[in-house]
Write a structure and sequence with these properties.
Elements: H1 23-44, H2 46-54, H3 76-81, E1 95-100, E2 110-114, H4 115-132, E3 139-142, H5 150-162, E4 165-167, H6 174-183, E5 188-191, H7 193-205, E6 217-220, H8 227-237, E7 240-247, E8 252-258, E9 265-267, E10 272-277, E11 291-297, E12 308-314, E13 316-317, E14 329-330, E15 341-343, E16 346-348, H9 350-358, E17 363-374, E18 377-386, H10 388-391, H11 395-413, E19 418-422, E20 437-439
Helix pairs in contact: 1-2, 4-5, 6-7, 7-8, 9-11
């Protein structure tokens, strides 16, 4: 395993002050901002006002933070149903930027930002970078996609606010990414974890040892990834890999970020109020217990999101973080409620399969889950690349590896699966979010 190049970087920056607010002061700020944002949404967003009226609620009924539980929930279809501008609380002449989803599964989701919203976004991204130990003398290669996707510009403005040097490479063109990474002495990279795996792989093909580069920090998000994947990335590149969380409906990247302790993501609670609900009953669950993350934007002007159901499954960690931050942490997101696969009556998440695969020596961090139907029975095949050494080994060694992987998956998920070992570079690589699941079941009906 390579030695981390992160050194003794500490995560404090003067503008990180809100991360350390005394709890009472933070809660007072949250309540004040909640009351203001509920009033704003009620006055300017017809759907929110209609749902409040149906509950016979007025903005003045929000007197404590606990009163947030009375307010209606938003879901993704609300954004699609009101496409494109139905949830805006600001007139268009105050909106300085629009982002949107790809719309591949229907109408795109459109989100708006005022100048103040963009400033808040930059400030929380600055706090995220500071928590990783990034400083103004760092050179940041931003390989998140620019354009309608929020990742590129979100990271870009936060890094500039910090005073760091930003290289806006966006995604794709892997050879050029590696050339810049090496020639420009890049110390920090931002991209999806699956794309960084592709960079590691291509670097090896080009004779570049990632351990020899000054690259020290990776800021990875926009897709779920496991602790096992983090170990692989850190071992193969010598960097420290940090998680970042965000979603377009709220603000983009910068809702929450890890600190140097790498044990949960601190939510920037002065701007985003978290709740964890049982996804079936929608009742709150205690800290430490898993449920669905529901977020309320406390300061967003253009498009307030009040109690937005993210579908991301996590838990709020009750213990204080050794880093000293007082803002709460949530467990890393490794799955979503709508990612769940139901195979022969058993609930399975892709992250469980990833963890089971990467726990076995001889595999590469590239895999795909293929679902098919045989009659009325669902079939699940897991294809995983194995190292060239294993693939060139004797058939008996491959069979043993296959058995160990199948056992690991069965132990983790309770399912017997078809396992197929494939050669390195067989599974298609991604320049953004990896496509882990191919569901062919409907095609066979």
């Amino acid at each position: 395993m390579g030695k981390s190049k992160c050194g003794d970087r500490q995560g404090f920056h003067p503008l990180s002050g809100p991360d350390y607010l005394p709890t009472e002061q933070l809660q007072s700020l949250q309540l004040s901002r909640l009351q203001t944002i509920v009033r704003r949404a009620y006055d300017h967003v017809a759907l929110f006002r209609q749902r409040m009226d149906e509950r016979k609620l007025k903005p003045d009924d929000v007197r404590t933070l606990a009163d947030i539980a009375k307010l209606p929930l938003y879901v993704k279809t609300d954004l699609r149903d009101t496409y494109p501008f139905g949830l805006f609380a600001s007139p268009m002449d105050e909106v300085v930027r629009l982002h949107a989803s790809s719309g591949t599964t229907g109408k795109p989701i459109v989100v708006a930002y005022t100048r103040e919203d963009v400033d808040v976004w930059s400030s929380v991204m600055l706090r995220a970078f500071a928590s990783y130990g990034v400083r103004s003398n760092d050179i940041i290669q931003n390989s998140y996609g620019y354009g309608l996707f929020t990742g590129g510009l979100g990271a870009h403005y936060g890094a500039e606010a910090l005073g760091a040097t930003v290289i806006p490479t966006s995604g794709g063109n892997t050879d050029r990414q590696l050339m810049i990474l090496r020639d420009f002495n890049v110390t920090v990279i931002c991209c999806t974890p699956s794309y960084f795996l592709r960079l590691i792989e291509r670097a090896g093909e080009m004779g570049i040892d990632m351990h020899d580069l000054p690259l020290a920090i990776g800021v990875f998000g926009a897709e779920p990834w496991t602790a096992e994947m983090r170990k692989r990335i850190e071992a193969e590149s010598g960097i420290t890999a940090y998680d970042i969380y965000g979603l377009s409906e709220i603000i983009g990247p910068g809702v929450a970020a890890e600190c140097h302790c790498q044990d949960g993501l601190h939510i920037f609670e002065d701007h985003f109020y978290p709740e964890i609900l049982d996804p079936k009953t929608l009742e709150p669950v205690p800290d430490g217990e898993e449920g669905e993350l529901v977020l309320t934007t406390l300061s967003k002007h253009a498009m307030p999101m009040i109690r937005y159901r993210t579908r991301d499954i996590t838990a709020l960690l009750p213990e204080k973080c050794p880093c000293g931050r007082t803002i709460r942490r949530m467990r890393r997101i490794s799955r979503r409620s709508d990612d769940m696969l139901i195979i022969r009556g058993i609930n399975v998440f892709p992250s469980q399969i990833e963890a089971a695969l990467l726990a076995v020596e001889g595999t590469l961090p590239h895999y795909q889950i293929v679902l098919t139907s045989e009659g009325a029975l669902d079939q699940l095949e897991v294809q995983v690349e194995v190292t060239q050494e294993f693939f060139s080994d004797k058939i008996r060694a491959l069979e043993t590896l296959q058995e160990r992987l199948a056992h690991s998956i069965e132990h983790t998920t309770g399912l017997r699966v078809r396992l197929r070992l494939v050669q390195p570079n067989t599974i298609e690589r991604s320049e953004g979010k990896a496509k882990r699941v191919i569901d062919k079941r409907n095609r066979n009906l």
